[in-house]
Design brief:
Elements lengths: L8 E5 L2 H10 L5 E6 L2 E5 L5 E6 L9 E6 L3 H10 L8 E2 L2 E4 L2 E4 L2 E7 L5 E6 L2
Parallel strand pairs: 1-4, 5-10
Antiparallel strand pairs: 2-3, 3-4, 6-7, 7-8, 8-9, 9-10
């Protein structure tokens, strides 16, 4: 049954005003649906969406929470850096970034952290 239903990501935010400013000013996203002051939905490519919601649990996950697929990771990284985004640098067995971008057997990836401590990702398949 679930395989036929739309799926969307859910991201926590401690401070909705700060988070909305980050997603607007740094990522260039505007809300598609403001359900109320504590729940805002954003629409991205191919009809995909994510919900930003208020909770004190924001920033506690130590894993990638949302990712965007791109055809040109270098252009996306460069654009986001020009907006003030700082990409994470990793160096551990199986994953090393160079200038914020890791090359893996399944593609290239880059990670950054939003205003609420959520780990976000950009990914390019080979």
């Amino acid at each position: 049954m679930l395989k036929e239903n739309e799926v969307f990501a859910v991201l926590p935010a401690k401070d909705m005003a700060r988070a909305r400013s980050f997603y607007r000013d740094k990522l260039g996203l505007e809300p598609a649906d403001v359900m109320d002051e504590d729940n805002v939905q954003y629409r991205c490519g191919n009809g995909t969406t994510f919900l930003l919601y208020k909770t004190d649990n924001a920033g506690t996950a130590q894993n990638t929470q949302v990712g965007w697929r791109t055809d040109d990771i270098n252009a996306e990284v460069s654009d986001l850096q020009s907006r003030g985004i700082v990409f994470e640098e990793y160096d551990f067995p199986g994953l090393k970034t160079e200038n914020g971008v890791a090359t893996t057997p399944v593609g290239k990836a880059a990670w950054f952290i939003d205003s609420e401590g959520n780990i976000l990702n950009i990914f390019q398949r080979p």
